[in-house]
Design brief:
The chain is about 5% helix and about 40% strand. The protein is an all-beta fold. It has two domains: about 350 residues, Neuraminidase, CATH 2.120.10.30; about 120 residues, Sandwich (Immunoglobulin-like), CATH 2.60.40. The structure holds calcium ion (4 copies). The site of one calcium ion (CA) has 5 residues, from loops. One calcium ion (CA) binds next to loops.
Length: about 500
């Protein structure tokens, strides 16, 4: 929602820029929808703490790097050696290294000074031993041929011809399946019928022929995307329009983008009517959420569903990082995802997260638009992983992972309550269980038939303990929520050290 220039009748039109300044001004909060405001409430309820705390307990956000020039930052990527590159709106690319592994950047090298870049510069991608830079109308291949982390060669590849004067959107961040480069190419207007068939699409850039081809259409302004590491499916956020008469605030979207399909823009935003010939979003996001960067949570260091999406939401003056659980039906083999306040990792007024990359220990680097890179990770590194679809009639493998040499105990609650109640396991160690809801189970006995979760048990040599949850084939259970949390202990299994964040398992239809 925040991309492109503002067309409100009280502001003159101005050149397209990444940031709609109204998103940053006092104007925007008055436009926020109640659904957006509720996000903060949800995170606060989950935390059991004051709403002033932007990071959900169990997670930690630290500053990895602050740019002296204030960015603004637009994109992150990592090279084959895992080094982090950050792009500024002006086209400057820096390599930001943490050579002593203390989670603070210590060596910064300017890889590319932003020479002759068409504003805005919105994407970078490490691909086939080069950095590929997405700036307005062009993708530029930058190669460092002598390994000094400074680009030596440049090749410009035009991808579309910007309209003279204003141009609402452009080519966005880049992502790859390992064989080609993909990017959203945004619409040329807020919501009008598109006159350029290249616009409002997902494009594929062939690395051999250096030509583009249209993969899917009807995507208004998809800023970033990602390939699922197992299925190869593409998932992208999409930003809805602002100025449609009678429909000022349609929801934003996450789409399962399949070749040849149309995703609604400029006829529909959000869920289309039946038989529209266009695809429904996989997940509806709150209006003005403004999805930006997206990555896959592979579960090596971050609680959640294995290979779920982790997405930055930029918009509305309240930015966030949210886990979007993603599961494939064991009958349909199709994905299902959902957005829930309980999956919010960070929500904060003034936060402007725009892109993410996996960090070395399983957390995520987040580019904050005003020139900062954060690292978000779980505290103490105990985490809970849901390994498969959680539908009725299935046994869902789960994994608890933690510090080698420690032990864990897992807890579970089945509840109709929206959020479980925190109980103190030890000083400052809340376990989120709901003792007051009519449906409640605590896994006090091993293998009790439903929750086969670890009782006080040492972790295996690789730091894992496996368990499972058997969900009865009972349709009445659909919609019920299971909550899981594990507490980590010392090696004697007596002294609690830390807990995982509470993780919600949704009981889904057998789809
Ligand atoms: Ca360091
Ligand atoms: Ca060089
Ligand atoms: Ca759509
Ligand atoms: Ca990205």
């Amino acid at each position: 929602m925040i991309f492109g220039f503002y067309l409100g009748n009280d502001l003159p039109a101005r050149p397209a820029g990444l940031i709609d300044s109204t998103a940053l001004s006092s104007r925007r909060p008055t436009m926020m929808k109640s659904s957006r405001l509720l996000l903060g409430v949800g995170a606060c309820l989950l935390s059991g703490l004051a709403c002033a705390q932007p990071v959900t307990p169990g997670y930690q956000r630290t500053t990895f790097y602050s740019d002296p020039s204030g960015g603004p930052f637009t994109s992150l990527t990592r090279d084959g050696q895992g080094r982090l590159y950050v792009l500024s709106l002006s086209g400057v690319i820096k390599v930001v290294e943490d050579q002593n592994a203390d989670h603070v950047a210590d060596v910064v090298t300017t890889f590319f000074p932003g020479t002759a870049v068409n504003l805005d510069a919105l994407g970078i991608l490490w691909f086939q031993n080069a950095i590929w830079l997405s700036h307005r109308g062009v993708i530029t291949r930058l190669e460092d041929t002598n390994n000094d982390l400074v680009a030596d060669t440049r090749q410009d590849i035009p991808v579309f011809t910007p309209a003279s004067g204003f141009d609402f959107h452009q080519n966005n961040d880049l992502f790859t399946d390992g064989t080609a480069i993909f990017f959203g190419l945004g619409s040329s207007t807020d919501h009008d019928p598109e006159v350029d068939p290249l616009r409002a699409t997902l494009q594929r850039l062939d690395p051999v022929t250096l030509t583009i081809s249209t993969v899917a259409t009807g995507l208004r302004n998809s800023f970033d995307g990602v390939f699922h590491p197992v299925t190869g499916d593409i998932f992208m956020g999409d930003n809805g329009p602002n100025f449609v008469p009678g429909n000022f605030d349609p929801p934003d979207e996450v789409n399962w983008v399949r070749p040849g399909r149309n995703y609604g823009h400029w006829n529909y935003w959000g869920t289309p009517p039946p038989a529209s010939g266009t695809e429904s979003p996989l997940v509806l996001l709150p209006t003005h959420a403004a999805p930006t960067g997206v990555v896959i949570n592979d579960g090596t260091g971050f609680s959640g569903y294995r290979n779920e999406l982790v997405m930055a939401t930029f918009g509305g003056g309240v930015g966030g990082i949210v886990r979007l659980p993603l599961v494939y039906g064991n009958i349909s083999n199709s994905p299902l995802g959902w957005y829930d306040a309980s999956n919010i990792v960070v929500v904060e007024a003034g936060y402007l997260p725009i892109d993410l990359e996996p960090a070395p220990e399983g957390g995520f680097y987040v580019a904050h638009y005003p020139g900062r890179i954060d690292e978000i990770r779980e505290l103490h590194r105990f985490h809970f992983l849901i390994d498969a679809v959680s539908s009725i009639g299935t046994t869902v493998p789960v994994t608890v992972r933690g510090l080698p040499g420690s032990g864990i105990q897992a807890f579970a609650a089945a509840t109709l309550a929206r959020l479980p109640v925190p109980l103190l396991l030890g000083p400052n160690l809340p376990i989120f269980l709901d003792f007051f809801d009519p449906i409640f189970i605590l896994s006090t006995t091993p293998a009790n038939g439903v929750f086969a979760l670890p009782q006080p048990a040492p972790l295996g040599p690789n730091g894992d303990v496996a368990g499972s949850v058997s969900i009865p084939l009972a349709p009445a259970l659909i919609g019920l929520t299971l909550w899981f949390q594990a507490a980590g202990f010392d090696a004697t299994l007596t002294t609690p050290l830390a807990t995982t964040p509470p993780i919600q398992m949704a009981i889904l239809p057998n789809f």
